């Protein structure tokens, strides 16, 4: 078994990010080739790709987990809130703003996002400030809504850590989930709240909190680390998957709030299994070089694929191939290699240089005296 308490970077996480980002790409191709969402018109082998939201759930739980790993090793403390904010800004903003510029260029010069119209000045300001989930404006990129939610969860992260220190991780998750569930219950009956739930799904806050809780595996007892986390993940996912299969896409996509929450424990158990090295076959797959390489540019892939999917479909596929399976397969053949290669180049320019700066500054700080309880 792997000693997670001594590891700073866990194998498999990059691969998981890469596969989740790739699933989102295929989902957006699916939505173009098989219109009619939330009705699933695809054959059985392609039907699961209608659920692109599930990849976002993975991202959110994984985000809470990854961010909390270092604090979990150091008494659930950040070295400093301001330093955490600077690191997050350096990590997400350069690539995000570059992707925003790219998306605006495609929307203005070639083709806008379906159903959005041409972005205007308000679109630039709202998306630039990561407020697109609370302020309506024509969107240049269908994937950007989740970036705004995640940025807002970063603001809540220090408060979650404080709650963990004061009350414990389980109490923190219970509190966040209770608030979220209350919003979910009252939301459909109050117009303003219902709109908020649709545009800014509060269930993602509970999933982020579950990820933070799961990071506690790094300091858990050997007995806890030895739990069959992979089997627990399957056991937690099985009833949710069965419900989705039984009820179908329309019911599922109209109840995403609760489906998201139900899937959270399964993803958490999966991460715990990867962190403790128990899910060995899956870990080998996720840490295989092609998958791991895909994961290293997963953030860029998520940011830039939307305009490319629309451009390829509208300008190349739609005018030559009929909707349905032919359009889906031809679009995938064109979009997947194009977005993956573009994302790698994009990441080398707008991600990697800033990651190197972060690592260099982190090394300098570790060579200096540190306050008790500080975490890098």
What does this structure look like?
The chain is mostly helical and 376 residues long. The chain has one domain (4-366). Helix content is 72%, strand content 0%. It has 16 helices and no strands. The chain has helices at 13-33, 53-73, 81-109, 121-128, 144-167, 169-186, 191-199, 203-214, 222-225, 229-254, 256-276, 280-286, 289-296, 298-317, 325-350, 352-366. α6 packs antiparallel against α8 (203-214). The longest helix has 29 residues, at 81-109. The protein starts with 12 loop residues before the first helix and ends in a 10-residue tail after the last helix.
The overall pLDDT average reads 90
Number of helices: 16
Distance between the termini: 25 Å
Number of discrete domains: 1
Beta-strand residue percentage = under 5%
In short:
Mean pLDDT is 90; it is low at 1-7 and 363-376.
Main attributes of the structure:
376 residues, mainly alpha, 16 helices, 72% helix, globular
How is this fold's topology laid out?
Elements: H1 13-33, H2 53-73, H3 81-109, H4 121-128, H5 144-167, H6 169-186, H7 191-199, H8 203-214, H9 222-225, H10 229-254, H11 256-276, H12 280-286, H13 289-296, H14 298-317, H15 325-350, H16 352-366
């Amino acid at each position: 078994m792997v000693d997670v308490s001594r590891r700073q970077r866990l194998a498999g996480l990059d691969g998981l990010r890469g596969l989740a980002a790739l699933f989102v790409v295929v989902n957006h191709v699916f939505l173009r080739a098989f219109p009619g969402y939330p009705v699933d018109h695809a054959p059985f082998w392609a039907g699961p790709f209608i659920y692109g939201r599930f990849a976002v759930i993975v991202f959110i739980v994984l985000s809470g987990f990854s961010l909390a790993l270092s604090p979990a090793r150091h008494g659930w403390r950040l070295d400093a809130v301001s330093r955490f904010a600077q690191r997050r800004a350096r990590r997400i903003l350069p690539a995000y703003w570059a992707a925003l510029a790219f998306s605006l260029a495609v929307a203005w010069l070639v083709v806008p996002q379906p159903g959005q119209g041409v972005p205007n000045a308000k679109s630039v300001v709202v998306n630039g400030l990561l407020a697109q989930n609370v302020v309506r404006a024509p969107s240049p990129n269908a994937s950007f809504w989740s970036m705004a939610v995640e940025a807002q969860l970063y603001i809540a992260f220090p408060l979650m850590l404080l709650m963990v220190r004061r009350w414990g991780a389980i109490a923190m998750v219970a509190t966040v989930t209770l608030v979220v569930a209350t919003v979910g219950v009252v939301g459909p009956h109050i117009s303003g709240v219902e709109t908020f739930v649709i545009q800014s799904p509060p269930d993602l806050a509970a999933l982020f909190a579950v990820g933070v809780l799961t990071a506690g595996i790094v300091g858990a007892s050997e007995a806890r680390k030895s739990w069959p986390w992979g089997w627990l993940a399957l056991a937690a996912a099985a009833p949710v998957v069965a419900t989705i299969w039984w009820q179908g896409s329309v019911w599922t996509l109209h109840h995403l709030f609760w489906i998201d929450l139900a899937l959270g424990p399964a993803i958490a158990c999966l991460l715990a299994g990867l962190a403790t090295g128990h899910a060995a076959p899956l870990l080998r797959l996720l840490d295989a070089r092609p998958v791991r390489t895909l994961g290293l540019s997963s953030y860029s892939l998520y940011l830039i694929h939307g305009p490319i999917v629309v451009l390829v479909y509208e300008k190349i596929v739609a005018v030559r191939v009929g909707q349905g399976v032919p359009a889906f397969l031809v679009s995938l053949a064109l979009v997947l290699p194009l977005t993956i290669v573009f994302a790698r180049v994009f990441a080398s320019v707008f991600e990697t240089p800033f990651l190197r700066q972060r690592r260099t500054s982190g090394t300098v700080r570790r060579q200096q005296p540190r306050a008790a309880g500080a975490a890098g």
